[in-house]
UniProtKB/TrEMBL annotation:
Pfam families per the UniProt record, alphabetical: ABC_tran
Keyword set includes ATP-binding: yes
Species assigned in the record: Sphingomonas rhizophila
Name of the protein described by the UniProt record: ABC transporter ATP-binding protein
Keywords: ATP-binding, Nucleotide-binding, Translocase, Transport
Length: 215
């Protein structure tokens, strides 16, 4: 489970979209040796992607939204996803009439539907209540324990202990890559985020360079 962290405009979304093939980018992406452009219907087994937008453009039922672009899903798998993300009570409503957090559950179900080897999630936790934050983290951990790689962009740094590794992206480049428990000690962390730990276990704005007292 990899947390993709970095300041606004750092490049997290661009990186995820480039890997997912949703953005023009140089180079090529291979997952388990396979080029994504050449895998056809097996794509959902290799890659799952939840974009930063929670919009679903069509007035379609939840089950159809989960299957959008993923290829056929068995009734058994759909049942598992409905149970995992508690979608039963929402089944008959068009997705356009769901709340943002409810739509997040549909889009997460869609991203994990094929049990992908690589799961790319762009701020999946941002609209969720605490129960669903924990449920989504649980679903990510399950995917990782089943042999998948989860790459999850997030801003809430208090969630870092839930991850194994953290990649810090800023100015369109990877600035640090470390165990999630150690990333805050990286020499570039404070300068890039412009915050520092405060006495209450939270964060405070880091004083500008000249006004910082030396340790
Ligand atoms: N379609 C686009 N065309 C040109 N530049 C873009 C486009 N989308 C994003 N950018 C720029 O690319 C940079 C990286 O943006 P990106 O959305 O990847 O950042 P981010 O780390 O996901 O930010 P945030 O935390 O605010 O979501 C920013 O400077 C942004 O203004």
């Amino acid at each position: 489970m990899v947390a993709l962290i970095g300041p606004n405009g750092g490049g997290k979304t661009s990186l995820l979209r480039a890997i997912a093939g949703a953005e023009e980018a140089s180079g090529s992406v291979r997952i388990a040796g396979e080029r994504l452009t050449a895998v056809g219907s097996r794509r959902s087994r290799l890659l799952g992607f939840m974009s930063s937008s929670r919009e679903i453009g069509w007035e379609i039922p939840v089950a159809d939204a989960i299957a959008l672009g993923t290829g056929p899903i068995s009734a058994e798998r759909l049942g598992e996803l409905f149970e995992r993300f508690e979608l039963g009570p929402l089944a008959d409503r068009p997705v356009t009439r769901l709340s943002t957090g409810e739509r997040s559950r549909v889009l997460m179900a869609r991203a994990v539907a094929g049990a992908p080897l690589v799961l790319l999630l762009d701020e999946p936790l941002s609209n969720l209540d605490p129960y669903w934050v924990l449920q989504f983290l649980g679903a990510m951990r399950e995917r990782a324990e089943e042999g998948g790689c989860v790459l999850c962009a997030l801003h809430d740094l208090s969630l870092l202990p839930r991850f194994d590794r953290a990649v810090l992206v800023s100015d369109g480049a990877i600035q640090a890559d470390a165990a999630a428990s150690l990333i805050q000690d990286h020499p570039r962390f404070g300068a890039i985020f412009r915050v520092q730990p405060d006495e209450r276990g939270g964060w405070e704005v880091r004083p500008p360079e000249g006004r910082r007292s030396s340790p």
